[in-house]
Amino acid sequence: MLLLVWTPKAWHRLFLLKPPALLWTPGGEALHMRYRLMSRQGPGEASRQSQPQGPGFRTRLLITALFGAGLGGAWLAARAEKEQRRQQQRTEALRQAAVGQGDFSLLDHRGQARCKADFRGQWVLMYFGFTHCPDICPDELEKLVQVVQKLEAEPGLPPVQPVFITVDPARDTVAAMARYVQDFHPRLLGLTGSAEQVAQVSRSYRVYYSAGPKDEDQDYIVDHSIAIYLLSPDGLFTDYYGRAKSAQQIADSVRRHMAAFRSVLH
Questions:
Q1: What is the pLDDT of residues 249-265, one digit of tens each?
Q2: DSSP string, the chain
Q3: CA distances in angstroms from 76 to 90, 119, 133, 257, listed in the order given
C-alpha cells in the first residue's frame, strides 16, 4: 500500500507533470494518475462561459419554435382536410343508398297536411317511434331535442326543425301526437297518418317496424329501427345517428354538414 502525504510543494510539482503521470509503488507497480488542471479563471467567468451567449442562441430558439409551429399547423390542416374528404365520401355514399327518395303525405299534430316539400330550405332532424314507447323513444327524442338546443345556442347557425313520425298510426292520432310532443320541445312537429301513409314514408327511409302481440289490456309494443335522420335544406337524406351517438357528437356532425353544405338544386 502506498501512502502519499501531499505538501503544498508536492501539489505544485504535480501540476507541472505532463498527463498521464505515473507514480511507482515500492512493489514496482505503476499507478496511473490523471488529473485536470484547474482553470485560473474565477467562478464568475466560468459560469458566464457555460451559458449561451449572444443573439445567435436566441435566433436559433426562435427558428426552432417557428419550425415546430409550422409543422403543427400543417398537421392540423392535413387532418382537417382528411376529415372533410372522409365526410364528403360518406355523404355521397349515403345519397347513393337512395334513402328518403320520393314524397310523403302526412298530418301534423295540429291536423295540417304535410309533405316533404314543406321542409325544403330547412335542416331537419327526424325520428321514427311511437307515443306508447316506454323508454327508448323518449330517450332518443330527448337527445334529439338536446341537439337542437345546442345548435340554437350558437349564433349564425340556421335553425333545425325537429320531426317525430309515428310507426303506430292506430293509436297515435293527431290528438295523441299533440299531447306527446308538447313535453319535449315547442317546435317538435309530430306527424301521423293512415297505415298506408306511415308504411310509405317508413319504406322510403328504410325504417323497419312491427307491432308485437297484445296483452290482456290490449296494449302492445312496436319493434322498430332506432335512428335519427338528418335532412339537408335540399330535402336530401344526409346522415343518420344510432343510439350510441351522444347529443354532442350529433351536434358536431350537424355543424360540419352545415359548413360543408352546397345546394345541388340551384
A1: 999 999 999 999 998 87
A2: -------HHHHHHHHHSPSSEEEE-TTSPEEEE---PPPSS-HHHHHHHHS--HHHHHHHHHHHHHHHHHHHHHHHHHHHHHHHHHHHHHHHHHHHTTTT-S--EEEETTS-EEEGGGGTTSEEEEEEE-TT-SSHHHHHHHHHHHHHHHHHTSTTPPPEEEEEEES-TTT--HHHHHHHHTTT-TT-EEEE--HHHHHHHHHHTT--EEE----TTS---EEE---EEEE-TTS-EEEEE-TTS-HHHHHHHHHHHHHH---S--
A3: 21, 36, 44, 19
For residue range 77-104, what is the model confidence (pLDDT) as tens digits?
A: 777 677 666 666 655 665 665 677 878 9
Say if residues 162 and 145 touch (Cβ distance below 8 Å): yes
Q: Which amino acid is at 144?
A: L
